[in-house]
Amino acid sequence: MIFGFKGSFGMKSSQLASIFLLTTVFSQIQAQVPDPQCPRGWVYNPDTNFCYYVPPFYTTDGVQWQLYSWTTAESNCQQFGSHLASIHSKKEDDFVQSLVISNVANLTDVVPDKTPNDPCFYAGAWIGYYGNGGLNFGSWTDGSLVDYNGLGQKLPNSYFWLVMNDESCQSKGWGYNFSTWLYARYVCKMPARNSLKSF
Ligand SMILES: *[C@@H]1O[C@H](CO)[C@@H](O)[C@H](O)[C@H]1NC(C)=O
Ligand SMILES: *[C@@H]1O[C@H](CO)[C@@H](O)[C@H](O)[C@H]1NC(C)=O
């Protein structure tokens, strides 16, 4: 029993050492347990009180990447009861960036039938913004306000947006493309279980 520490002050150091060991093991186990606020495989963000999900690069055969258009990505999120992620602050942006860290430059044959077949072209993760990057311009698929843009730059045309964080590809931050361009991942976002919000 490692809880209920009553009367434990007179313990020998060997006993204390074993308690610390147990506590360490326990916190390692706990790290793998899904947060009760989110479905299994989703990551809870206490700052926003939302849950986020990024699919793995390899979803079926474990060899080639699965690629998604922006439209397919949003419809997959909807099947999970979520939307492509919206991002509303630098802090939430940093959190999402931390979820999509990758290191793919030297992988081979993950997109064998694509031109170019360099993985760095496909390592982005779709987010839910469509627009030209201007504040209050365009829309998030979850209907939230367009009050933040990670590129910090207004484009002459509207595009569909993604994030990427891959040192080996020298890409970090927001990007944009046509909805039909295929990327290997996407970020879904849903309110946490204790939330009264429904987007
Ligand atoms: C990727 O390949 C380059 C050139 O072959 C090499 O210099 C680099 O160390 C490799 N990077 C990783 C992360 O393996
Ligand atoms: C879409 O992505 C490809 C690959 O990165 C790039 O060559 C192309 O310029 C992008 N399109 C736009 C409109 O940025």
UniProtKB/TrEMBL annotation:
Name by which UniProt lists this protein: C-type lectin domain-containing protein
Record-linked Gene3D superfamilies: Mannose-Binding Protein A, subunit A
Origin organism lineage: Eukaryota, Metazoa, Ecdysozoa, Nematoda, Chromadorea
Keywords assigned by UniProt, alphabetized: Signal
Keyword Signal assigned: yes
Signal sequence coordinates: 1-31
PANTHER family, A to Z: MANNOSE, PHOSPHOLIPASE, LECTIN RECEPTOR RELATED
InterPro entries with a match to the protein in the record: C-type_lectin-like (IPR001304), C-type_lectin-like/link_sf (IPR016186), C-type_lectin/snaclec_domain (IPR050111), CTDL_fold (IPR016187)
Top-level taxon: Eukaryota
PROSITE patterns: C_TYPE_LECTIN_2
Ranges of residues in domain C-type lectin: 47-189
Pfam family, one: Lectin_C
